[in-house]
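Appendix B.2, paired examples.
Example (i):
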Amino acid sequence: MRKFEKSVKLNNVCYDIRGPVMDEANRMAAAGEKVLKLNIGNPAPFGFRAPDALIDILKSNLTETEGYSDSHGILSAREAIIKYDESKGIMGVRPDDIYTGNGVSELITLSLQGLLDYGDEVLVPAPDYPLWTASVTLAGGTAVHYICDESADWYPDVKDIERKITPRTKGIVIINPNNPTGALYPKELLQEIVKLAEKYDLIIYADEIYDRLVMDGKKHTSIASLAPDCLCITFNGLSKSHLIAGYRVGWMTISGDKSNAKGYIEGINLLSTMRLCSNVPAQSLIAPALSMLDDTDKLIQPGGRVYEQREFIYNAINAIPGLSVTKPEAAFYCFPKIDIEKFNIHDDEKFALDLLRQKHILFTHGGGFHWEEPDHFRIVYLPEISVLKEATDQMADFMKTYRQAD
């Protein structure tokens, strides 16, 4: 009997956020064991709810959004995105430069499939959001990881980026605000990256899904606003800022110099048309949501849930001997460092599994974000402080005696 194996195209594709450690957590949960899942930035399980007014709009639009839309998306949504882009300094965008998607994930994959031939390279940060590396690989390209430097607030190392550019390099991915580190990149750094993109004719892929979740009074700068002479593709959506991850509402904007990208844009149009359109009821939320940002702002101000939970996790992790963490400036995540000599850690996935089995706490090991050393992990700080306290107390107890066998 013939066996049906997975495609060889998937041989180097991984997504450990939902990988083997998650599989073990699901097995434990199926056996009746309680597991605290701190591995995925999904607000709903932790009691976050979308604004009531937004849900009411969705309900009222259902009978008007039963058919397919234009493959780019409904016009009112794209016009609202143009206004939002202009507010971020991204100018010259037309409705046909915007594509709505079933979340940003779909559009990342689509944009790379439309560009890459076998052997082409894309610069991707390390640590990364692993979908980027997986999508580059699945499209036939090679993800080349540049270093983000923990000692420099997790900013990209511009010299390392330039060292890794080759004649096969077609683009560079910038995740800002960053997942998994929570770093926010300053304008001056982004300008340096733009200079490299101009010098080497690179496409800039800007993942900015967390741009409305920036704390401490800081301001997010969209790299596309600094790069009118580069081809930029900027990704954004409502999943995080409006707490509707399950509705899958994302978009991408093509801006800058498109003069040498006619063929590429034709490819994107083809792929966009092949999937007909994104979820139309969800698209109908884009315009009202982008005029409804006050609820999001409350979460990230002192006294707001996200802000206070960020403060707690930062202090609690740094209070555990052998752990340290750089304070995140945005999003829902932090990326703590482990003193691997103290705990003899040589396998970060095993570390994650051991903590899961002993303390029933699930997080993603650093290798799941293409971080090469076994000395980091990502925690999602969406649970309420009482839950985070229980988790960090259990973690502190675990670390008192933990040591990996040689």
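Example (ii):
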Amino acid sequence: MLMLKERELIVEHGKKLITNGLTTGSGGNISIYNRDLGLVAITPSGQDYFETKIEDIIILDLEGNKVEGDLKPSSEWSMHLIFYKNREDANAIVHTHSKYATAISCMGWNLEPVHYLIGFAGYDVKCAKYATYGSQELAENALEAIEDRNAVLLGNHGLIALGTDVERAFSTAEHLEFVSEIYYLTKTLGNPNLLTESQMDEVMKKFNTYRYK
């Protein structure tokens, strides 16, 4: 069986998508890229996370060809692959339908620096133009909007978080859901007091030395 460790991590974090409130049902998806093998492990399409077994995880090459697995890969597989082809720092992707990040994406807003934890993604999080889920257009819109950040909002859809490993990508998705909730709450109160560029510069300097544990 190829990529056993990656399969185990995906099954584990798939359950955490539900228990940590980052999606509902079978929504969202997770993948891990093994650069030595040039292969991607990704969640299957429409499968309950608590019923997903390691043998259900699909293995793809970077052209989207199925290398191992009997089920259909996530409908968003092309969006995962486009990041792995274009972002050398990305070895894992977590796609969520978390409530507050999705609400911000449904407004077509960028997520602004209302709280320093946005630094997990960068100075802010851009919102990509809407496109049908699972489409190549959505993949291209997401890649264009993410720029040099570690996350991007998908218009009227959800959030994509990148990481050097799946733990980092998952943590970024969690922290951005918190920032999205704070942004939502401050918007209901008035105009948020946003961090300045110089203040975010200091945050990013600290985040450059941060090591995820």
